[in-house]
Structures are given as structure tokens and as C-alpha cells.
Design goal:
11 helices, alpha/beta, single chain, 265 residues, eight-stranded parallel β-barrel
Length: 265
């Protein structure tokens, strides 16, 4: 996610919160909403589809999250699972998957097609998850192909990266230390992430609720904070109250209504 300059972190931590009557922290700045696999839970859409990207932009999301795998012949495609029709993506060429239809009738998009469509919505961040692979070699190749394509399409400023693989995160940072990279797996401390040049913490809502202090630790180190997949109103209110930067959700319209509602000061 977007890096927050270290020199203003202390100011944000100091001024970014105040105590309500009930003693709970309430943010003075607004949490942003990211549509998980795009805004797919609406008519005519599907997960990781071009339609879901357009829908996320239409309702005013900060970003649309999507998943990317690399085929055996080096084509990056937008899909969540590591198999399509029972065939492992990393072990088969793109021709095997070309023409595959999504649930809304769209053709499975390549990353190039997705990025090109995303360029029509410059205010929408593209939150690109590089999926883990069975070998570090394939993960490294995925990073190279994907980052090269992002550069070639002129989308560097619009793309932010996330990954469950720490190897992928470190490879991203090694290739471009200025890239926005957030780690998903939840087994690293904010201190470890900061040490390795990773700019964001993006952990499961269950972990955040169990240890909300991790958000404060991350902020103090200049890391951005996000949580997935936050779908209930109670969970949304919890992370908003604790000043999280981003919510990744399958219910982006609900989240948008909560982050923009007036707060009694």
C-alpha cells in the first residue's frame, strides 16, 4: 500500500486519534475501502472480472484487489485458484486457459487486459496479489513478468502489490524499493516488515481483532495497515475505530457507508 513518510508518522499517531466518551480511539482521518476481487457481489459481475473492476470504480472505492497467476509459458492471468478446470496454471501454457468463461460470461482476463482497463480509472488503485507458487523459482519469475508488464503499460503509479509469500514480497522490494508492497500472511511483526523494506501490513481480521495493538506498532514504524476479508458491520466498525488505513471487503458499499458516516466529536 501507499508508503507513509517516516517523518510524519509521529504527527499522525499524535494527532490522528482522540478519546471518545467511552474511551475508545476514533480516527480523525478516513479509512479507505478496497473491493475484494473487485466489486463482484452485484448483478452482471464476477470475481476477478473486468466488470468487477469497473464496479469498484463506479461506487468510489480506493482500490480493487485481484489475483494473478503465471502460466508455464509466462502469461500472467487474473484468477484466484491455482487450477482452472482441474489443470494447474503454473504447469500449463496459456492456450489451455484462453477463452475460459467466468460466471458472468466474460472471458478470463490476462493481466495486460486488466491493467489496460484499469488505466481508464486513474483514481482507482489496482491492488495486485501475486499468488504463491510451489517453487521460489516460479515466484521469482512471476514477479519479473508482472513488474515488467506493469512498467510497460505505464501503470506503475496505480498498482500496489500484496502477497502471502514473503519471498514474493522481498523480490518485489529488491526490484523496486519504492513499490508499495504489503504482506498478507500474518506471521511477521511490524518490525520485521519494516526491516525488510516492506511498506504495509495486511492481515486477516481475526488476527487484528486478537491483537489490535499491532496497528499502533505498524503506524509508529510508518507502515500502512489493512485487513481482509472484513465483511460484517461489527468488524468494519472495529477496525475503523482502531484507525486502520484500509478495509478489504466483499461488501464495499456497506464499508463505504460506514467510513463516510458522520462521527460525533
Amino acid at each position: 500500500m501507499i508508503k507513509r513518510p517516516i517523518y510524519i508518522t509521529a504527527l499522525i499517531v499524535t494527532l490522528g486519534f482522540f478519546l471518545c466518551a467511552n474511551g475508545q480511539e476514533t480516527p480523525l482521518y478516513q479509512t479507505q475501502v478496497i473491493a475484494h476481487r473487485g466489486y463482484w457481489d452485484t448483478e452482471g459481475s464476477a470475481q476477478n472480472s473486468i466488470a468487477s473492476l469497473r464496479n469498484a470504480a463506479r461506487i468510489g472505492c480506493y482500490g480493487t484487489e485481484f489475483d494473478v497467476h503465471l502460466t508455464s509459458d509466462g502469461v500472467a492471468i487474473v484468477t484466484h485458484d491455482d487450477k482452472i478446470g482441474g489443470r494447474v496454471i503454473c504447469k500449463n501454457p496459456y492456450s489451455v486457459f484462453e477463452g475460459h468463461k467466468l460466471s458472468n460470461g466474460e472471458t478470463l482476463p490476462t493481466l495486460k487486459q486488466y491493467l489496460e482497463e484499469g488505466s481508464n480509472y486513474p483514481d482507482l488503485k489496482l491492488i495486485l496479489e501475486i499468488k504463491s507458487a510451489t517453487t521460489a523459482k516460479h515466484e521469482t519469475r512471476s514477479v519479473e513478468v508482472i513488474m515488467d508488464l506493469v512498467e510497460q503499460t505505464g501503470m506503475r503509479s496505480q498498482v500496489e502489490y500484496i502477497a502471502f509469500s514473503y519471498h514474493v514480497c522481498k523480490e518485489l522490494v529488491a526490484r523496486d524499493p519504492s513499490a508499495s508492497v504489503a504482506y498478507l500472511n500474518g506471521d511477521k511483526t511490524p518490525q520485521e516488515l519494516s526491516r525488510d523494506g516492506i511498506s504495509g501490513l495486511d492481515y486477516n481480521i481475526r488476527l487484528i481483532k486478537k491483537s489490535p495493538g499491532i496497528l499502533t506498532d505498524a503506524r509508529e514504524l510508518g507502515l500502512t495497515t489493512n485487513s481482509w476479508t472484513v465483511n460484517s458491520e461489527d468488524d468494519m466498525r472495529f477496525v475503523i475505530r482502531h484507525g486502520i488505513d484500509y478495509i478489504t471487503t466483499d461488501k464495499p458499499e456497506l464499508a463505504l457507508s460506514l467510513v463516510t458516516e458522520p462521527t460525533d466529536r
